[in-house]
Amino acid sequence: MPETLAPASVTSPRTLRSVIAASSVGTLIEWYDFYIFGSLSAIISTQFFPKDNPTAALLSALAVFAAGFIVRPFGALVFGRLGDIVGRKYTFMVTLLLMGGSTFLIGLIPGYESWGMLSPLLVLLLRLIQGLALGGEYGGAATYVAEYAPPERRGYFTSWIQTTATLGLFLSLAVIVATRKILGVEDFESWGWRIPFLVSIVLVGTSVFIRLKMNESPVFSKLKTEGKVSKNPLAESFGKRENLKMVLLALLGATAGQGVVWYTGQFYALSFIQKVGHVDFEQSSEIVAIALALATGGFVLFGWLSDRWGRKVIILGGMALAVLTYRPLYQQMYALTDVSTKTEVSTQTSIQNQSTTQVTSYTDGSQVQKISVNNSQGTEVKYVLSLGNTGYWTMVLLIWIQVLYVTMVYGPIAAFLVEMFPTRIRYTSMSLPYHIGNGIFGGLTPFLAVALVEKATANQESQPYLAGLWYPILVAAICFIIGFIYLSSRNRIHE
C-alpha cells in the first residue's frame, strides 16, 4: 500500500498557519545568515585577504562564499539521513543552531592584518559549517510543511517556504544598508560590517524559541509509530535504481536550472551593477532590495498556479524566459551605467591630502565620482556612479523582471520535489538534488561569472561584460531540454 501525505481533514487551518509561520521564520533567518557573507563580499575581501591585488582578493572572498555552497550537498546527506531516522523537527533545530553560531563567530574574527592567514582559514571553516547546516535545513522545512498540507494545495502552502530565501537576502541587504547609514561609510567598512553578523545570534534565539513549540510532522510520527521508518535512507535513496533515477531527473531536469536562475537574478545582478556598472554600494543595495520586495509575492502566485497548471510548465517557463532574455536585460543594465553615452553638465574637482575627487554630473541626473588616492604603491583610482531618478527606477524594473523569473522556477520547486519521493526517504532524497542544483550549479554562478568577465576583459573580447552570462544560460538551457523531455506534466498526489 503506498504511503500518502497527510489528508487535509487532519490538519486545521490554524495549525497549518502555525506550521508555515514557524518553519518559514527559522528558514528565513538561516538564509539571512548565509547571505550576509555574499552581500558583504566586497568588504570582506579587504578585511580577510591581502589588499595588494583587489581583484584576487574579491575572487578569494567569492571562492570562500562558494565553498559554503559546495558543501551543502554533504549537509543534505548528513542531516537528511538524520531527519528520515530521528525526525524533521529535531534535525532542523540542530541546523539552525549550527548556522547561527557560525555566523556570530564570523563577526568576531580579527582581520588579515592582525592574524594573517589564520583569519581567512577560520572564516572558511565557519563558512563550511554554514553550508552544512543549510544543506540540512531547507529539506526539513519543505518536507515538514508539505506533510501537513492538503495534497491538492501543496504548491500554495509550500510556496511560503520558498519566499524565505529571497526575504532572507532582502533582510540581509536591509540590515546592511541601515547599519551603513547609521555608522557612516568609513566606520562601516572599518568595523561596522561585523554588526549584521553579530545580530544573527538574537534572530536565531528567537527562532529556536518558536520552533521548540512545534510538534513532529503527523505523517512521520505515524510512520515511526508503525515501525516503518527507514533504517538506511542513504542506501534506499541512492542504492535503488528507480529512486536514483528520480534523484538525477530532479537535479538535471529542474534544480540545476532553477539554481542558476535564482543566483543570476539576485546575486549576480547585484554584483554586476556594483562591479561592472560601478553603482554606489548603498544605491545598488536599495535597487535590489526594492525589486526583491516587489517580486516576492510571485513565489506564492506561482506556487498557487502550480496546483492548477502543474509544476512543470511554470518551472520550465521561467527557465526558458531566462535563457532568451538575460543578454538583452544585462545589455540594458550596462547601458544605464555607461557614462560614455551620457551628456555632461558640469565637472568639479576637489583635493584633500593624498586624495583627488572629480565629480561629473550628466543631463539624466546621474553623477560619477572619480576618486584618485596616492599611496606607496602608486595611484589607486575608484569610480562611484549614482544613477538619476529615471535610471534608478529603470534598473529596479530590470532586476524585478529577473526576480520574477526566480519566483517562477522557485515558487513550485518544494512541492515538485516532495512529490517525487516517499515519506520514509523524502528528507534525504529531495535534499540532495536541491542542494547540488542550488549549492553547486547555482552557488558557483557569482564566482564563475566574475571570472568569465575578467577573462573576456583581459582578452579584449567584444562586450566582455556579458561574458559572465554564458554559464547560467548554458545550464538553464540544458536543464530545460531534459525537463521538457522527461518530466511529467501532472502533479503527483501519492507516492
UniProtKB/TrEMBL annotation:
Highest taxon of source: Bacteria
Keyword Transmembrane: yes
Transmembrane segments: 56-78, 90-109, 156-179, 191-212, 247-267, 287-306, 313-330, 392-420, 432-453, 465-487
Residue ranges occupied by any Major facilitator superfamily (MFS) profile domain in the UniProt entry: 19-491
GO molecular-function term, one example from the UniProt record: transmembrane transporter activity
GO CC, one annotated term: plasma membrane
Species assigned in the record: Siphonobacter curvatus
UniProt protein name: MFS transporter
Its membrane topology: Multi-pass membrane protein
InterPro entries with a match to the protein in the record: MFS_dom, MFS_sugar_transport-like, MFS_trans_sf, Sugar_transporter_CS
Stored Pfam families: Sugar_tr (PF00083)
Keywords: Cell membrane, Membrane, Transmembrane, Transmembrane helix, Transport
